[in-house]
Amino acid sequence: MDIGIIGAGAVGLLFAGYLGKRHNVTVYARRKEQREQLEAYGVTVWREGRRGQTDVQAKSLSALDSRHDLVILAVKGYDLDESLFITVPTETPLLFLQNGIGHMDLLKTLPYDTVMAASVEHGALKENEHTVLHKGVGATNIALVRGASGPLQRLLEEKDAAFPFVKEDDYEAMLLRKLFINAIINPLTAIAGCVNGEVASNPYYSALIEQAYGELLHLHPHMEEVISLEDIKRVCMNTAQNRSSMLKDVENGRMTEIESILGELVRKTSPRDMPVMNTLYLLVKGKESAGRMT
């Protein structure tokens, strides 16, 4: 396939590095310096001490090609806007990789024939403009929002054990499952300043996980059959040494994804109904604001 990837952060580079082995990949990056490095060096992926290098093309968003077989939106939720891909023909399939549920309404209303959503379980850390560390091998769960299943099937045929795709039937349940994980682990680690494993092993943080899970379940009771409290704690321990993306954003004074992950939830409910989640939201917003002012 001819694939365009909009966004050259950790996830965008990870997808380019793996998909570029078998497909013609173009990465669309905002900054000229990054585009030049991607053109010169390709994408470098480090995993378990081994280095892989993949040649890709790099272009500016203003030069977005209209002939791709698939366009992947790998930008953060707060950067997602229809203007990013307005020049893409409506018959071109789109795949969205964003965390949270803030983009669900957009997915439903886009005038595109084929729209897919994904939940990315890989751990990735951008080291420089063309290098990404693949710190945790997971899967990319992918579901059809509407349209033809051809592009989805072609991704499912990828046979790379380090970068598998898994088909999901219900995109809303898939995104909500990831939301339960992100909405609990990311804010807790960002506020506590600790790795993922510590929020499960520390009894006080663990108590907050239980309370937060109960609040989310109160809002989405049908998800009890999809994700359990034990599932969330298992994710913490399976990624025990990982530093969440929200923690890294707070540490580096960057904007976080708290709005796309928790903002939608807290605006739909009263603080009395979700006191823990509302408190976590406000604490992360406070740290985010303080970090950007320093």
From TrEMBL:
<dbReference type="Pfam" id="PF02558">
    <property type="entry name" value="ApbA"/>
</dbReference>
<dbReference type="GO" id="GO:0050661">
    <property type="term" value="F:NADP binding"/>
</dbReference>
<dbReference type="GO" id="GO:0015940">
    <property type="term" value="P:pantothenate biosynthetic process"/>
</dbReference>
<dbReference type="InterPro" id="IPR050838">
    <property type="entry name" value="Ketopantoate_reductase"/>
</dbReference>
<comment type="pathway">
    <text>Cofactor biosynthesis; (R)-pantothenate biosynthesis; (R)-pantoate from 3-methyl-2-oxobutanoate: step 2/2.</text>
</comment>
<protein>
    <recommendedName>
        <fullName>2-dehydropantoate 2-reductase</fullName>
        <ecNumber>1.1.1.169</ecNumber>
    </recommendedName>
</protein>
<dbReference type="InterPro" id="IPR013328">
    <property type="entry name" value="6PGD_dom2"/>
</dbReference>
<keyword id="KW-0566">Pantothenate biosynthesis</keyword>
<feature type="domain" description="Ketopantoate reductase C-terminal">
    <location>
        <begin position="172"/>
        <end position="288"/>
    </location>
</feature>
<dbReference type="Pfam" id="PF08546">
    <property type="entry name" value="ApbA_C"/>
</dbReference>
<dbReference type="InterPro" id="IPR008927">
    <property type="entry name" value="6-PGluconate_DH-like_C_sf"/>
</dbReference>
<keyword id="KW-0521">NADP</keyword>
<dbReference type="InterPro" id="IPR013332">
    <property type="entry name" value="KPR_N"/>
</dbReference>
<keyword id="KW-0560">Oxidoreductase</keyword>
<dbReference type="GO" id="GO:0008677">
    <property type="term" value="F:2-dehydropantoate 2-reductase activity"/>
</dbReference>
<dbReference type="GO" id="GO:0005737">
    <property type="term" value="C:cytoplasm"/>
</dbReference>
<comment type="similarity">
    <text>Belongs to the ketopantoate reductase family.</text>
</comment>
<feature type="domain" description="Ketopantoate reductase N-terminal">
    <location>
        <begin position="3"/>
        <end position="144"/>
    </location>
</feature>
<comment type="function">
    <text>Catalyzes the NADPH-dependent reduction of ketopantoate into pantoic acid.</text>
</comment>
<dbReference type="InterPro" id="IPR003710">
    <property type="entry name" value="ApbA"/>
</dbReference>
<dbReference type="InterPro" id="IPR036291">
    <property type="entry name" value="NAD(P)-bd_dom_sf"/>
</dbReference>
<dbReference type="InterPro" id="IPR013752">
    <property type="entry name" value="KPA_reductase"/>
</dbReference>
